[in-house]
Amino acid sequence: MWDVIVLPLLCTLLIECLLSVLLFRSGRAVYGVFLCNLLTNPLMNAGLYLLSRQLGWAGYFLGLPVLEGIVVVAEAVVLARFLEWRPIRAAGTSILLNALSCGAGVLLWMW
After folding, report:
1. In this structure, what DSSP letter does residue 84 have?
2. How far apart are CA 16 and CA 93, in angstroms?
3. What are all long-range contacts of 68-72, with beta carbons under 8 Å and residues at least 24 apart?
4. Which residues of the chain are under the pLDDT cut of 70?
5. Measured distance CA(10)–CA(91) in Å, rounded
6. pTM of this structure
7. What pLDDT score was predicted for residue 39?
8. What are the boundaries of each domain within the chain?
9. Each residue of 63-76: b (16+ CB within 10 Å) or e?
10. Helical H runs in the chain?
11. Which of 16, 27, 34, 56 has the most CB atoms around its CB within 10 Å?
12. Strand, coil or helix: 4
């Protein structure tokens, strides 16, 4: 499960937390992003793993946008409440961070 759960989580934490430092320069914001990923990333990757085991690559590629969409919404809600941000700021942050970390993950996977 190292390559399915732990490695993607560590990569995501590294990318999103570093981006949060650069974007917000706030320890609380970085902590909020860190907590969001601890909640959502393992669940998403476990879901993708199960879908790909049951349906092959089709399950993975169909599940990825659906699960990423759920993650974006969940993280936006957590960020808005935890950081007391307006929903639009939390949603924009969640979309940006998840798009960049997902894109990096896809590139790493292809490599």
Report:
1. T
2. 10
3. 68/44, 68/98, 68/102, 70/44, 71/40, 71/41, 71/44, 71/98, 72/98
4. none
5. 22
6. 0.92
7. 96
8. 2-110
9. bbeebbeebbebbb
10. 7-24, 27-55, 57-83, 87-110
11. 16
12. helix
Cα separation, 96 vs 90, in Å, equals: 10
Sign of the alpha-carbon dihedral angle for 86, 91, 93, 94: positive
Query: In whole angstroms, what is the distance from residue 56 CA to residue 37 CA?
Result: 25
| Maximum pairwise Cα distance, the chain | 42
Q: Quote the crossing angle between the two packed helices 27-55 and 57-83, to the nearest 10°.
A: 160
C-alpha 50/C-alpha 9 separation (Å) is: 17
Q: How far apart are CA 71 and CA 18, in angstroms?
A: 19
Residue 111 has a pLDDT of 79
CA distances from 79 to 9, 92, 109 (A): 18, 11, 28
The pLDDT of residue 2: 79
Q: What would the pLDDT profile of 74-99 be if each residue is shown by its tens digit?
A: 999 999 999 999 999 999 999 999 99
- Per-residue pLDDT, 53: 95
